[in-house]
Amino acid sequence: MLLALAASIVAAGQTFTCTPTRVWDGDGPVWCAEGPRLRISGIAAREMDGTCRTNQPCPNASAIAARDALVDVLGGPRGTTPTGHVIVASGPMRCVSTGSAGGSRTGAWCTLPSGTDLSCAMVATGTVLKWDRYWGNHRCR
Question: What are the tens digits of pLDDT across the range 74-124?
Fold first, then answer.
């Protein structure tokens, strides 16, 4: 039962809490203590092998640089797992689901405990790009 909950997609439009516990790359997934696997909405980062998918923006920054920037935004590294995920210990974020982001990931716009928009914070690092197809009318304050 717990495994099924962990892989569930949060329905589009629903608000949920995500307390990040580990990160894979610069645009997600971010594992949430509450269960969801989060894909950060509106941004694109390189794949961990350094490539970019043909249908998305391709930032100049490496995948490692983007992942490390996300880890820093989420409070810094607390270790790694045997699978290569970086462990983080961030406060809970308030997120609004955009629905399925492929696989077992929920796309979402999230606000950090500081009140900063996570997608905007990542764009400001210069390691990811806005993905216009998904960014839409989103605004950074």
Answer: 999 999 999 999 999 999 999 999 999 999 999 999 999 999 999 999 999
- Which residues touch 108 (CB under 8 Å, ≥6 apart)? 10, 16, 18, 36, 38, 39, 40, 41, 95, 96, 97, 98
Q: Considering the entire predicted model, what is its pTM?
A: 0.93
Q: Is 98 helix (H, G, I), strand (E, B) or coil?
A: strand
End-to-end CA, the chain = 40
Among 40, 27, 24, smallest CA distance to 107 is for 40
Structure tokens at 140: 């950074």
Task: Provide the token pair at 111.
Answer: 């606000």
